Amino acid sequence: MFKFSRISCALGLSIMMLSGMASATEAPAPVKVKVFIGAMFEIGKNTGDRAGEFQHWYERYWMKSAAKEVPGAMNPVFCNDDGVCGSVLGMGKVNSSASMQAIILNPQFDFSEAYYIMSGVAGTPPSQGTIADVKWATWLVDYDLGHRWAPEEGDPGKPVFMPRKGYEEYRVYQLNKDLVKWAVDLSKDVTLKDSDSAKAYRLKYPDTAARAAPSVGTGTFIAGDTFFHGPGLSKEAQYIAKLYGADDYVMTEMETTAIALVIKRTHGTDRILALRGAVNFDQGNPSETTLQHLDPAPGQTAGGFAETVENIELVGSKVVDHILKNWSEWQKGVPAAK
């Protein structure tokens, strides 16, 4: 009897020790992500040098945060104690969506109630915007996923693009109207930065929108891995936006339709915002060719890059901070717009 008791005690002690070891090695609880901010590139370091798309976000939210490595993502993820996380996802549809997929499925994070702000620089048609403008997307449209041919091989003056069947579910997204309205209402009165070089550069364009001071607005973002440029392809982008029933094309970029697809397949798209700042026009001025505009002479660049990347964060942080401050309401879903 005594021998049995000793064996029982030993077994009990072993079980307790194993249980303690298991508890000690259990993974920490995942970060409850309230807002995820995705940028596409950074120029150098995350702080202390020339700012790219991520630096101002990093300096506002993650200066004291440790990097979380994620297999499959191009760069680490940073999260603060308030549930704001962010990362540099990479440029182009493949890089950015692969990074987003790796992050959103990683067990370190709980994205079940997260809001997303995909942010970066972009080009704008001079008829729709100007350097240092900041726009919230109402629609996301893919520039690709169709058929194209050389202009001389089609009817003169007619479009050279035709959508390909089978891509209807992910070549165009209309973003949550209430969420976009919230974003605009919260950020429309932000005082945007500008530069003397950008002011001078705008005067090369005759368009009223191109010559205006920077402001906050909305419209369709067209995403293509090809850096389409020039008045002809700008016109084609507008044609595609209208073909799909979207608003006017106002920003050219390279990532967000692919990122939206990743998020949609996991958590839906009703909590996504896309935010872009214009650092160039999508075509040259009337006195230069498209190639001259793509490869400008020294001193002929648009200017305003530093001001634009700062504007993006100034505008976007208004929404981030509002969601955090009112999380008990936003946690349930996007409140009805006022």
Written account of the structure:
With 338 residues, the chain is an alpha/beta fold. The chain contains 11 helices and 14 strands. The protein starts with a helix and ends in an 8-residue tail after the last helix. 43% of the residues are buried. The N terminus is likely disordered. InterPro entries: Nucleoside_phosphorylase_sf, Pur_nuclsid_perm.
Count the domains: 1
How big is the Rg? 24 Å
Q: Please, what is the average pLDDT?
A: 91
Q: Tell me the name of the CATH homologous superfamily.
A: Nucleoside phosphorylase domain
DSSP helix fraction: 25-40%
Number of helices: 11
State the CATH topology.
Rossmann fold
Please indicate the percent range of residues in DSSP E strands (runs of 2 or more): 15-25%
Our measurement of the CA-to-CA distance between the termini, rounded to an integer number of angstroms, reads: 77 Å
Name the CATH architecture.
Answer: 3-Layer(aba) Sandwich
Order of helices and strands: HEEHEEEHEEEEEEHHHEHEHEHHH
The secondary structure category is alpha/beta
- CATH class, named Alpha Beta
State the shape.
Answer: globular
Oligomer: single chain
Contiguous runs where pLDDT drops below 50 for at least 5 residues: 1-11, 13-19
